[in-house]
Structures are given as structure tokens and as C-alpha cells.
Amino acid sequence: MGHIEELANRYGSHIKVPWQRSLAGDQKSIFVVYPKAEEPRLRNRIELFEMQTASAGHQWKLLDLTGTFARWMADQEYRETYFEEPESLVMQLQNGFLQYIADRLLAVLTADDVDEDTVVAVLGVASFYGFTHVSKVMKKVIADIRGRLVVFFPGEYEDKVYRLLDARDGWNYLAVPITLHNGMYD
Predict the structure, then answer these.
(1) Could you tell me which of 173, 116, 174 has the C-alpha nearest to residue 148?
(2) pLDDT in tens, 34-57
(3) Which residue from 54, 36, 67, 14 is spatially nearest to 164, judged by alpha carbons?
(4) Which domains does the chain have, with CATH numbers?
(5) Distance, CA of 24 to CA of 20 (rounded, Å)
(6) Which residue stretches of the chain have pLDDT < 70?
């Protein structure tokens, strides 16, 4: 069995357990952590996670944030200036881009067809690298998670610390980790 299939099975084991309804938003988050080299395989097999979700009796909504930076930049009035003077983009990244990502995710999390039995799954967080942090996005949306938020996270999880794309800096977060090793399903 390949890595992605094993992750899907571990995810399935977790998602089929009856859900506690009174959890805080960050406790309703699940990070599926996998080696960054597995990203193409995961994308090609994402339906395995959807099938696990459906077999557990839950709805599935997928949001791919991969092209978010390009869409945000295209909408910027001063984009030509940002290309000529990239340092002028820093403030916009810290505030505007972060809020843009959060708004896209919040639109799905709070949609009329999303309820306490829905998994909202997010692909493409690696595309934030160098622009903003996943942890900052999570802080903006955790209060609006109704069912479960599953973040497909190319990187590492060790000693309760997540590292996107195996970066040096990481952060401690209360999400449930689903990993190939050192996780709760080993």
C-alpha cells in the first residue's frame, strides 16, 4: 500500500469515530501531514479521502487554494508597482493577502450547505509559503468551523509542531495530526 492510501485509511479511521459537537474550532481541525514529495500523488488520489468521508456518513467540500496568490495579485490596483518595488508589497501581504485567503475559506465554512456533519477539506496551503503562514489563516477561521476542517499539509509534524514544506520554523497547534509516522494512528 502506498503512502497516500495509508494516510487515507488513517484518516478514515479517525473520521468515522462519532464527532463531539462541543469542541473548540481548533480541536475540529485535522491536519493530514505528508512528505512534500507526495503532493502530486495526494492530488491524484484526493477522492480516497472523499470516499472515506462519505462512508462515515459526512458531507465533503473541497477548496483548492493553490492559485490564490495569483488571483489576489491580479486584483491589486498597484500590482505593477509591487513588481517594480517588491518591498512595497510587504504590508499588503501581512494584511490584505492573509484576509483574502481567510475570506475564501470562510465563504466555504459558512456556506448554507455546510453544517455540523460536513468536512471542509483544503488543498494548496504550500502556495502560501513565503507570503503568509497557515497558522495565521487558521486563527482567522477557527471560530467558524461547523463540522471538521481538514488541511492537507505537505511538511512535517513532530513533537506537536507543524512545519510547512519542512521549514525550520514551525508552530504548535491543537489540530488532530494524521501522519505516516509519529502520529496517533501508528
Answers:
(1) 116
(2) 999 999 999 999 999 999 999 999
(3) 36
(4) 3-17+27-178 (3.40.50)
(5) 10
(6) 1, 78-79, 81-83, 86, 88, 166-173, 182-186
Q: Cell triple for residue 107?
A: 465563504
Question: Among candidates 87, 115, 108, 175, which has minimal Cα distance to 139?
Answer: 175
Q: Which residues contact 41 (CB under 8 A, 6 or more apart)?
A: 2, 3, 4
- The one-letter code for the residue type at 42 is L
Taking CB atoms within 8 Å and a gap of at least 24, the contacts of 179-183 are 179/7, 179/10, 179/33, 179/34, 180/3, 180/6, 180/7, 180/33, 180/34, 180/35, 182/157, 182/158, 183/10, 183/33, 183/157
- Which triple of cell numbers denotes residue 49? 479521502
Predicted TM-score (pTM) of the model is 0.88
